[in-house]
Amino acid sequence: MVPQGITRVVVRNAIDRALQGTLPGEGYRLVVEVFMETGPRGRIATWRLDIRRPRGEDLGRQPWRILAEDRLASIEGLHRLALQSGKAIRGEEPGR
Questions:
Q1: What confidence tens digit (pLDDT) does each residue in 65-90 have?
Q2: Residue 90 counted as domain residue
Q3: 1-19 pLDDT, tens per residue?
Q4: Has residue 3 been placed in a domain?
Q5: Do residues 14 and 31 make contact, with C-beta atoms less than 8 angstroms apart?
Q6: Are 33 and 46 in contact (CB under 8 A)?
Q7: CA 59 distance to own-chain centroid
Q8: Number of compact structural domains in the chain
Q9: How far apart are CA 35 and CA 43, in angstroms?
């Protein structure tokens, strides 16, 4: 999912919800946005991940597990895109 030559990756959790069928705190459905940069070119992908904490004796020794993943969207071919990490982006109110 991540091609060779990537010089920088930024992952942002857009949405998280409890994973259906798990106990509270043991599973989540995440929607993550991934920005990948290769020199002056960039790509943005949105993925859905179902993750779960190990149970019983594996708790504390094993990392969280990805149970399922789904690529929801991808935009490729972004050129000379610059992001300012210190600025938040917010939408304008209608009528302004």
A1: 999 999 999 988 887 666 566 655 55
A2: no
A3: 566 788 888 899 988 899 9
A4: no
A5: yes
A6: yes
A7: 24
A8: 1
A9: 6
pLDDT bin (cut points 50, 70, 90) of residue 96 is very low
Whether 72 is covered by a domain: the verdict is yes
Cα angle vertex 5, ends 51, 34, to 5°?
35
Residue type, 6: I
Residue 91 lies inside a defined structural domain of this protein: no
What domain range is 29 assigned to?
8-79
Amino acid code (one letter) for 21: G
**CA-CA distance, 60 to 24, in Å (whole number)?**
17
What 3-state DSSP class applies to 80? coil
Closest of 29, 32, 30 to residue 11, by C-alpha:
32
Beta bridge partners of 44: 35, 75
